[in-house]
Design a protein that fits this description.
The protein is mainly α. The protein folds into 2 domains: about 1-25; about 35-90, 434 Repressor (Amino-terminal Domain), CATH 1.10.260. It is built from 6 helices and no strands. Helix 3 (about 45-55) crosses helix 4 (about 55-65).
Length: about 90
């Protein structure tokens, strides 16, 4: 099958799913970390948290206000910190 035919079939399947005529074969959902709750639990200021994660205070504020969601490595680091808060202390020390 050519790449064009594969893309066409994929788009046709997406339309069927969107219109409710077909179930998605796989659905992936990600839990979004509650950044403010994590930071507050750790007793860190927004500046301290931003410094430890290597990001800006504006990014921390956006995450806390749910205007943006952490993605990629940031999301994984936050999930790890949420599971084991001692990880934050190790990260902040570097």
């Amino acid at each position: 099958m050519s790449i064009f035919n594969e893309l066409k079939a994929s788009l046709e399947e997406a339309v069927e799913i969107k219109q409710g005529r077909q179930e998605a074969a796989r659905v992936t959902r990600y839990d979004v970390a509650d950044v403010k709750a994590i930071r507050t639990y750790l007793g860190a200021s927004q500046q301290e948290f931003a410094d430890a994660l290597g990001t800006s205070v504006d990014t921390i504020k956006s995450w806390e206000r749910k205007r943006r969601n952490p993605t990629g490595l940031a999301a994984k680091v936050l999930a790890t910190i949420q599971d084991d808060p001692t990880v934050y202390r190790a990260i902040a020390a570097h």
